[in-house]
């Protein structure tokens, strides 16, 4: 059996596990709250997100006002008369449990209904479009029953990159994509392959566009091959579309190319019937793109304050209960991630000054005096403050007698000047390292 055949079999099995019987020929029940509006099939209940940080809070009175998330991406406008007295509003970042949703979700409070609708505006960026298209983006919410619901009348402003809805209730909100392009692996070693597939949620959109909210179903590989066209590869390697299903196989070149990131794109046509949703489907197609990074058998790369970095060498040492991930960035500075454990094993490791189980430290070594250090920083009052984020080990394996450790991390790196609010650098990294 060829590698491509193995991939197709895996996709077929995955689709079979996720697929549920379609109901196009089954009478659609009526919505008990509005007999004129079909209710449609029941959506899939998903876990409620967990907190990712401290909520932003603000007291807003009868005169109205606004509040925004800490990252500035979600802005809420409260009109005059929406509350009868001073009310504490909050926006808390939480983990996103919605398939096809870029980024994090936001838990909004106070919960319950308002006498006047509030305006929610989400600003998306280039990263949010890594696997989807702006015209496929809507806003969605998750109430207490766990079922995410897409707001079909989400207003899209492509010039200002915003999604806007009016709502009379609060819960957890997030952006949502009707279609997105996935890859089995974000990194592909030289000479090896990864599968790609167009995915969606079976939410019976065409039959429910007259509704204001559509419950989101199980995510699956798209089964409408007639509307999938024009697979493209931007970069080195080989792309082999299936032809019978909306899937493809990308194979990296045998040697590291000068540019290590490639882009795969595919078009989805006729995704929304013309005229059904104002401002949607005007182009008649979506262009989904997915970035894939070509790597060697080990890697260590990421961003420093949003700027990409690659390390020229990397390894780990499992000696005395210490895991080191090291590398030289641009030949100028060295980066060391240190975790304390008996043996490297999958799990989350917090950044902490203490050396013990499930703790980790990161040190940024520069040629400037003092350097940068993280895991904690010292305040003038003598307290140590641990850095947010974590070191996550996903895979520990031995291949041909060599031990490999794979994972990722996020961490704030502080200038050890002793101030309570020192300058910081924000690191996000991905690694696969081995014993030397």
Describe this structure in words.
Residues 22-49 are annotated as: Disordered. Residues 27-41 have a biased composition (Low complexity). It comes from Chitinophaga pollutisoli. This is ZU5 domain-containing protein. The chain is mostly beta strands and 436 residues long. The protein folds into three domains: 3-13 and 180-294, Immunoglobulin-like (Sandwich), CATH 2.60.40; 27-179, Chondroitinase Ac, Chain A, domain 3, CATH 2.60.220; 299-434. Helices cover 5% and strands 50% of the residues. Strands 3, 4, 5, 6, 7, 8, 9, 10, 11 and 15 form a ten-stranded antiparallel beta sheet that branches. Strands 12, 14, 16, 18 and 19 form a five-stranded antiparallel beta sheet that branches. Strands 27-28-29-33-32 form a five-stranded mixed beta barrel. Strand 10 (155-157) and strand 11 (162-177) form a beta hairpin. The longest helix is centred in the first third of the chain and has 16 residues, at 3-18. The protein starts with a helix and ends with a strand. Mean pLDDT is 79; it is low at 1-38.
């Amino acid at each position: 059996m060829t590698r491509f055949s193995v991939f197709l079999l895996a996709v077929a099995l995955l689709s079979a596990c996720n697929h549920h019987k379609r109901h196009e020929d089954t009478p659609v029940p009526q919505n008990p709250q509005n007999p004129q509006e079909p209710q449609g099939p029941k959506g899939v209940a998903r876990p409620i997100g967990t907190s990712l940080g401290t909520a932003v809070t603000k007291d807003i009175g009868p005169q109205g006002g606004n509040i925004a998330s800490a990252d500035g991406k979600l802005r809420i406008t409260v009109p005059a008369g929406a509350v009868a007295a001073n009310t504490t509003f909050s926006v808390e970042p939480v983990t996103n449990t919605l398939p096809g949703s870029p980024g994090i979700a936001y838990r909004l409070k106070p919960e319950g209904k308002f006498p006047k609708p509030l305006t929610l505006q989400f600003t998306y960026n280039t990263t949010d479009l890594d696997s989807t298209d702006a015209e496929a983006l809507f806003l969605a919410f998750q109430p207490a029953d766990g079922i995410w619901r897409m707001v079909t009348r989400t207003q899209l402003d492509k010039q200002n990159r915003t999604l806007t809805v009016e709502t009379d209730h609060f819960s957890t909100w997030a952006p949502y994509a009707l279609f997105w392009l996935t890859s089995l692996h974000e990194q592909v070693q030289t000479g090896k392959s990864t599968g790609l597939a167009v995915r969606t949620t079976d939410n019976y959109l065409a039959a429910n566009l007259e509704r204001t909210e559509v419950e989101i179903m199980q995510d699956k590989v798209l089964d409408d091959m007639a509307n999938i066209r024009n697979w493209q590869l931007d970069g080195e390697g080989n792309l082999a579309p299936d032809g019978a299903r909306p899937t493809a196989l990308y194979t990296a070149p045998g040697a590291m190319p000068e540019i290590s990131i490639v882009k795969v794109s595919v078009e989805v046509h006729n995704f929304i019937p013309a005229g059904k949703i104002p401002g949607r489907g005007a182009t008649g197609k979506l262009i989904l793109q997915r970035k894939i990074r070509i790597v060697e058998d080990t890697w260590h790369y990421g961003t420093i304050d949003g700027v990409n970095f690659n390390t020229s060498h990397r390894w780990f040492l499992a000696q005395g209960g210490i895991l080191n991930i090291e590398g030289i960035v641009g030949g100028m500075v060295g980066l060391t991630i240190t975790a304390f454990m008996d043996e490297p094993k999958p799990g989350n490791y917090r950044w902490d000054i203490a050396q013990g189980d499930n703790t980790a430290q990161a040190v940024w070594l520069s040629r400037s005096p003092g350097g940068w250090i993280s895991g904690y920083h010292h305040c003038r009052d003598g307290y140590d403050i641990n850095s947010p984020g974590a070191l996550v080990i996903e895979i520990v394996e031995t291949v041909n007698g060599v031990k490999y450790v794979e994972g990722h991390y996020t961490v704030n790196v502080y200038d050890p000047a002793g101030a309570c609010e020192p300058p910081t650098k924000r690191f996000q990294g991905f690694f696969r390292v081995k014993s030397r």
